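Late entry, written up from scratch paper. The run itself happened at the end of the previous shift, but nothing got recorded in the book at the time, so transcribing now.
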Amino acid sequence: MSSAQTATSTLAAAAAPTSLPAPPGAWRIARARAALELLLYVRAREALVFSFLYPTVMLLIFGSVLGDQTVPGGVTYVDYFTAGIAATGIILNTFQQVGIRIAHEREAGELARLQALGTPPISYLAGKGIQVLVTTCAQLAVLVVVARLVFDVPLPADTAHWLTLAWVAVLGTLAGTVLGFAVSLVPRSGKNADTIIAPMALVLQFFSGVFFVFSDLPGWMRIVASVFPLKWLTQGMRSVFLPEAAARAEVAGSWEHGRTALVLGVWVVAGLYVCARRFRWRRPA
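Output as recorded:
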């Protein structure tokens, strides 16, 4: 080969476009989003006070005032309330916080920028979900420790009860997260998200046997509550923290684990369907 041909080949090779690295996959983007979401969560003081620490603060208040009273089922109010406030913490950390946060991010144009960067919706959803799962586990751990040390609330009795705590918490977290995505579409403006979403969660707390014994609520209220996941999440938590004999005080006379799993699972599927069909990066005009 002549020197001219060699030079031409060298120039052609230099001019040829270099191969670009493959774009990151959806799971890698989700992990990066999860790390960022956790960092933002820790830095947001209002989230720590009104979401992460809310169950523990409420337990300390209600347990100190009403803890020694006995409720149907032969258990103390603080034992009964621990189960309910554990479920409420999950709903507030998922449904309420996720819904409000996404509405604000959409309003501020943050979601539009993520879309412009090519972020897959599933990566954004998974990133939020991982952050919520981590913070929910930490929140439950703090609540259980405080309940045990301050009010001598019994820990789950055996491995079966710990496993029940795990699947109830995971299903409740999944349901609350996807429903938070869905409800973020309700406010017409991010500025109104707090005033629309927070009252929904508050009303469900009163309907679902968190602050009051569920069997003592009016019949119509129990029927309405049975449609929504918080009632079943709360009942599942009672089956973890209360003795087996307390199940007789439930409306059905049992913990209804099968129905609890079914209802929470249906809400997970329904929330995913709404997210897949209706999720928007931008606020509707």
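The CA atoms of residues 69 and 171 lie 31 Å apart.
(Scratch paper discarded after transcription.)
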